[in-house]
Amino acid sequence: MEPFRVHILGCGSALPTLRHYPSAQIVELRDKLFMVDCGEGVQMQLRRCRVRFTKVGHVFISHLHGDHCFGLIGMISTFGLLGRTARLHIHANEQLEDMLHRQMELFCHDLGYEVVFHPIDASRHEIIYEDRSLTVETIPLTHRLPTCGFLFREKPSLPHIRRDMLDFYRIPVSQSMNIKNGADWTLEDGTAVPNSHLVTPAEPPRSYAYCSDTRYMPELHLQLKDVTTLYHESTYGEDNLAMAQKYNHSTARQAALVARDAGVRQLILGHYSSRYEDENILLNEAREVFENTILSNEMAVFDV
Q1: Which one from 31, 37, 67, 110 is the annotated catalytic residue?
Q2: What value does the mean pLDDT take over residues 64-78?
Q3: What DSSP letter does each residue of 41-105 carry, written as one string?
Q4: Are 254 and 288 in contact (CB under 8 A)?
Q5: pTM reported for the whole predicted model
Q6: Are 108 and 81 in contact (CB under 8 A)?
Q7: Whole-angstrom Cα distance, residue 165 to residue 197?
Q8: Count of CB atoms situated within 10 Å of the CB of 162
Q9: 20-68 pLDDT, tens per residue?
Q10: Whose CA is closest to 12, among 24, 2, 1, 20?
Q11: 121 catalytic, yes or no?
């Protein structure tokens, strides 16, 4: 199967610590790299994980809290210093556009490439990016200001040719694409060979959902039904439930409830409050509800 991975660059919350960087991830699918959120220190983290800067084509910003976007202008500047020529696409709340352009005018003279801004409406569930291999959808969330998550969906691939059957029926290789697209084959004597004898099913499409920041939304699972891997914020444990409610965040247990109800295969926790020196407290809490839960950490790479 083609690679579909998530690289964790930062999984802390608003207050940077010596243990965690603010939110930032790279989603890698079929040799394409997409950045989700862009907190401080993202440039150093990109170098540490050895991701090629030039391959990051799109940046998706969930909301306009600093721990999710303060690294953006620095990264844009560095791309210019590295001689980038390809366009960089920024998907974010429309309020960021004017501020970003002002920063670029002040700090990024002769940038050498174009930054294209795509405003998104965090209150709507819609496709905001599409290519031949995937779509990216917004997931409306509930936070202290307009916020959305992002759902990366792999498009279905074609079935696999059974080369042994092509050889057995002496079917020209030039017909492979027609057969992948569902064509049967007719032998010289008129016998029809059904397509099902000539192919094996493709792997099921994979999907990755990023949900940070948000308060617990009991109905959120409806938008995440059967997602392969879910990253859901777990800023607090149940010991700080009042804080979670006050600041529109979630506990680890609440993240697990979403994962369980959505029927996802794997839950990744993140966006930890700086008050927790050992996130295993959050992990154990989530696993009481949803067993297949893991902790994110800087430089961790997860296969979707």
Answers
A1: 67
A2: 97
A3: THHHHHHHTT--GGGEEEEE---S-GGGTTTHHHHHHHHHHTT--S-EEEEE-THHHHHHHHHHH
A4: no
A5: 0.92
A6: no
A7: 7
A8: 14
A9: 999 999 999 988 999 999 999 999 999 998 888 779 999 999 999 999 9
A10: 20
A11: no
